[in-house]
Structure formats: C-alpha cells, structure tokens
Amino acid sequence: MTMAVDKYAKFTKPWRWSSQPRPLSLWVKAPEEYGFYEIGYCERGTFVPKYGGRAAGTTLRRRLRKHHFSSHNPHIQAARGRLWYRYKVFDSPAEARFVEALQVIAFQEEYEWNDRQEWAQHWALER
Fold first, then answer.
1. In this structure, is residue 68 part of a structural domain?
2. Could you tell me how far CA 111 lies from the centroid of its own chain?
3. Long-range contacts of range 96-99, CB-CB < 8 Å, 24 or more positions apart?
4. Which residues contact 24 (CB under 8 A, 6 or more apart)?
C-alpha cells in the first residue's frame, strides 16, 4: 500500500464513535481535541442525528459548549434541552474538515438541520 493510500485508509473503513451519545448539557465531558460531531435526539434508546459538524478551528468541548449556550442553528436553539451529541476524535483540523465534508454530503437526508449553504461549500471542494 502506498503512503498516500495508507494516509486515508482510516477514513474508508467503518469507524466507531469515540463516545456514546450524551445529553448536550454534558458538553463539558467532550475532549479538548479536534473532531466531528453529531447533534440529535435519543429516541427509544437510539440516537437520531439531525446535525453534523466539525471542531477544527476549536475543540469538540468548545464547539459543543457554543451549541448548548448560543448555537447559530435555530433548530438546535429551539430544542436545546432535549438534544444529545456524540463525537469522533481526529488528529488534526484537516482530518476533521475532511470527515465533515464526506459525512455532510453522504448523509444529507439525516442532517436535515444543516444549512443548505453548507452543502454548496462542500460540493465546491470537489471541483
């Protein structure tokens, strides 16, 4: 396997979340690391994501704190007390951005709270 292929191998294999879903009010339990996260509901013991985002210029803890107290997303603001999150830690901001781009494009239907402008930004990366 070449080094270039090996570099992306961890993104092409199924991966596990770094955390089990937790209430968004427990944002303080998220690590001070880069990563990708989902915010959604826990329905009958199953996590249902509604929003996907990255912590690349900041840490997961800081990004989730921002969503809990003053999210830019009106859906998250409206449902704040009932929301849960889960995350996947990555080694660098570049990896977090890469995974977010793939996830947001691949799971458009599930991430119904992501702004449509976000889709356009990610599609632009492929041109």
1. yes
2. 10
3. 96/34, 96/35, 96/36, 96/54, 96/55, 96/56, 97/54, 97/56, 98/11, 99/11, 99/36, 99/54
4. 39, 64, 67, 68, 80, 83, 84, 85
Residues 43-68 have pLDDT tens digits of 998 999 999 999 999 999 999 999 99
pLDDT digits (tens, 9 = 90+) for 81-93: 999 999 999 999 9
Q: In this structure, is residue 6 part of a structural domain? A: no
**Within a domain: residue 26?**
yes
Segments forming the whole domain that contains residue 81 = 16-125
> What is the distance of C-alpha 98 from the center of its chain?
11
CATH of the domain at 20: 3.40.1440.10
